Amino acid sequence: QQWQIGKLSLSTAGFSYAGSELIRWSDTIGCHCERSRSVCSLTVFAYPRHRRSGKRERRVIRWQIGGFQDAKECQLHLLAALKSVGNSAGAPPVEPDGPCPSVTWPKPCLILLNPRSGSGKAYDLFLRHVNPILADADFPYQLVVTRSLDHVRELSTSVPIDSVSGIVIVSGDGLVYEVVNSLLNRPDAEAAVRSIPIGVVPAGSGNAVVSSLLNYLGEFHPDNLIQHAALSLVKHRPDSLINLDVGVIQTPTNTDRPLHCVLSVTWGLIADVDAESERFRILGGARFGLLLTKKCLAGIKRYRGRLSYLPADPANQLIDSLPNFDQPVPTSWTVLERDFYTIGALLMSHLAEDFFPVTDWQPDDGLWRLFCVYPCSRSQFLRGFTGAAKGRLEGDSIEVIRARAFRLEPLTPGGHMMIDGEPMSYGPVQGWVMPGKVRVLMSGKCQDMPAGDK
Ligand SMILES: Nc1ncnc2c1ncn2[C@@H]1O[C@H](COP(=O)(O)OP(=O)(O)OP(=O)(O)O)[C@@H](O)[C@H]1O
């Protein structure tokens, strides 16, 4: 369908002015409209993809459109048509004689910014890359630069559920974990996770959560991760947020108050690299590569362990509880007792911006991916690990097992165990999944985008 208003052409795919290039609705995040008598001045903010690099770049389009009999009408229709796209990526514009869409974002988002995340430049990154996008989209928010982890927990636990339209985290994966756990530990946890979706703007060193989500949406661009995340945030549609799996993690001492995981539980090499590279935070994401190289040269430590899991075949339905640690796992489970270099029980496709061993990921498929690396020669390890980082699994030394639930019992004493990149107690651990438990302020996969954008 096509509508013509003066030299402005509106269609279900996008709009153009006086025959200029088509700007897709899904690339537009906001607009301002001013009216004087019968003339409308329109400014539209769009972030179309660069043809070759694939990066999104800001475009400001300004027009004056005159000659309307009823200027108020003109303003309302254009504003409604253009504004609707900010929150409804790909929805067709309102019909020129149709009703204006209801006002979006009635409540502000609470933005929690950790000034110490990554290499310590989160505030700078926010001002440079995120704030301009929020302003273009007219996105209402309240920014809090957090003082400490306790401050983050206190705010996420106490924010009234009807006062915000979500909590946006400007930090790394660690703070996403903290906010999700705070929400799920509230007395009104069920209402809180339903009413307070979370948003993520990457400013940490790993940024695996946001990398996985953007990759799923076809919006992953490593050079411009923060900008693409901010665009996904402002383009979210309140009626089609992403539902994200949450893992319920038990240890022998916390069965009545489990931890909640959105990214991973790791043990062996990956956990050691994560924990021991903490002191190189200033390097940002490069800290992982540095430690990995060091460990590889020194010889990777073998860990003996017992990994039990419920395979993800269709016969095994979702489960919502696990046997106590003093009970054996059910006979339908597979048990592997052997040496490992590492195990990562993953709920995401990425373990870091540049490491994505899982290629078939859905945010709410209710599955763990058990990323296992077995002892092998150094060259086999390097080949396998670099392949896995790019989603290619080759050789016998690396495997990704899809499971509904797992139990991991380390048999080698001493080592690190990490949950979502944060340290947890070393010892037996088991987990199951609550499918799609939290909601994310990003639009769901582009099923209803115009054909050209799919
Ligand atoms: N002012 C602060 N506000 C919030 N958290 C803080 C603050 N200062 C230090 N922290 C610590 O930052 C940690 C969270 O950092 P986060 O994991 O989000 O970033 P990162 O480690 O750089 O990124 P990634 O997890 O992606 O590697 C918390 O565990 C907390 O202890």
UniProtKB/TrEMBL annotation:
<dbReference type="GO" id="GO:0005524">
    <property type="term" value="F:ATP binding"/>
</dbReference>
<dbReference type="GO" id="GO:0016020">
    <property type="term" value="C:membrane"/>
</dbReference>
<dbReference type="Pfam" id="PF19279">
    <property type="entry name" value="YegS_C"/>
</dbReference>
<dbReference type="Pfam" id="PF00781">
    <property type="entry name" value="DAGK_cat"/>
</dbReference>
<dbReference type="InterPro" id="IPR001206">
    <property type="entry name" value="Diacylglycerol_kinase_cat_dom"/>
</dbReference>
<feature type="domain" description="DAGKc">
    <location>
        <begin position="104"/>
        <end position="253"/>
    </location>
</feature>
<dbReference type="GO" id="GO:0001727">
    <property type="term" value="F:lipid kinase activity"/>
</dbReference>
<dbReference type="InterPro" id="IPR017438">
    <property type="entry name" value="ATP-NAD_kinase_N"/>
</dbReference>
<dbReference type="GO" id="GO:0046512">
    <property type="term" value="P:sphingosine biosynthetic process"/>
</dbReference>
<keyword id="KW-0418">Kinase</keyword>
<keyword id="KW-0808">Transferase</keyword>
<dbReference type="InterPro" id="IPR016064">
    <property type="entry name" value="NAD/diacylglycerol_kinase_sf"/>
</dbReference>
<dbReference type="GO" id="GO:0005737">
    <property type="term" value="C:cytoplasm"/>
</dbReference>
<keyword id="KW-0067">ATP-binding</keyword>
<dbReference type="InterPro" id="IPR045540">
    <property type="entry name" value="YegS/DAGK_C"/>
</dbReference>
<protein>
    <submittedName>
        <fullName>DAGKc domain-containing protein</fullName>
    </submittedName>
</protein>
<keyword id="KW-0547">Nucleotide-binding</keyword>
<dbReference type="InterPro" id="IPR050187">
    <property type="entry name" value="Lipid_Phosphate_FormReg"/>
</dbReference>
